[in-house]
Amino acid sequence: MQSILSNEAALGRDVTGIFADRCGHQNLGITMSEGEIWEKTRTWTFKTLSKLGCGNARNMENYIRMASESIFAQIDDSIMARVDIEVDKIFQKSILSMTWLMIVGKLSPEDGPDIELLSDKGRAFMESSFFGAGITNVFPILRFIFPHWLGYNVQMDFFTTCNKIAKNLFLEGKAKQDLHRTPEEAKNFVDLFSQNCNSDPKTFNCENFQLIFQDLLLGSTDTTSSHMEAAFLHLVTFPEIQEKIYREILQVSGEGKPLNFSDRNSMPYIQAFLHETHRMSRIAQNLGPRRVLRDLKYKEFTIKKDTVILPDTRLYCEDKIIWQDPENFRPERFNNSDGELVNTEKMITFSFGKRACPGERQANILSFLLLTSILQRYKLSLPEGETKPRLDMKLGFSQRPYPFKIRCTWRKEFVRDYLQ
Ligand code: HEM
After folding, report:
1. Residue 357 annotated as binding?
2. Residue 308: count of CB within 10 angstroms of its CB
3. Which Pfam families match (predicted)?
4. Best probe residue, ligand 1, of 223, 309, 369 (max atoms within 8 Å of C-beta)
């Protein structure tokens, strides 16, 4: 899998069905584009995000603290009211706000309605993608025959909403630029994008900005919230694993100090847990579908030009030769006898080669900081009398757990140290 996906001949995308419609049948954006425009847009976007501090743990820590406040508030309210939490409802909006912060550079009250709208339509998009997106990709005609049944209308509604909001952001940035601002005055991603409109209009135009906006929202929000939901699922199913993680947190932050990303080096068990959650849940089970740009030789086989490659990571994540007991959820497989982190090179979560996920670092910072800050404060359990939730994942745009509920209680140590 690795050698095929890393091959330059396998860098194309299968742009059919809804994936073509969402791009207005143009070669633009990052996720679905190809060739020079893909390379330029991807490189510029992630270099610029990195310049703005995304991917830098220190800056991300501030973003994540802001995003986690609303998650803590929801959990605190549920504890006071003694009600259960529906896990599929708590992460998506906070993570989306963080992506908004990455792109727009601020989270002001006027942004509230746009974020609310993106969150509502985004949730509907995820729920509609149970199998519709896959089928319409194979038989594109079906999206016009059964648009409602296949969720096509809901999916296009999400893309249209994204485009409308992105267009307003772009026009605002462009208007500022037209007031002859100096490069130093560019403060956020939109400003920096607009600065290039005159010198390179082929790449820096409204349509490409709309697609980048869609790509960043879809790429970061659904995947990371699904990973968090899967982590919660395993924490309540295996309380002994949750306690082991909590003991590790106490060792590093005994006095209730907030954890930083650099603390992960002293926390090999939680890192092992996050890897094992990826292995078992396979959020992006088929990685990203690729199209072969020219005949590709692999061993004695030839993969013909235009063949679509849909990697099936189950074959790898469930391989008994690699994992011995792949059916068991066992974070310890990523720790050696001294407790150090090992075997991470065996993971394929973020794919391979030039088209591998460019948000891997952001995703890792987010999942580590969000999860540790939650587990530092709260103990998560299944509600009394509730049967164990199923551990297999629900198909969709990304795989996520079937809906389940949890109960939270405050950790005594956190409340005590925090109040001191
Ligand atoms: C748990 C979290 C995440 C997982 C499991 C994940 C996984 C993936 C995978 C498997 C691909 C396809 C790679 C390929 O085609 O070979 C991908 C692509 C992509 N991801 Fe992620 N991702 C995550 C988070 C993020 C975040 C946080 C961002 C943005 C900040 C992001 C942005 C993207 C983009 C833009 C692409 C398209 C890359 C291209 O086609 O060149 N992802 N991701």
Report:
1. yes
2. 14
3. p450 (PF00067)
4. 223
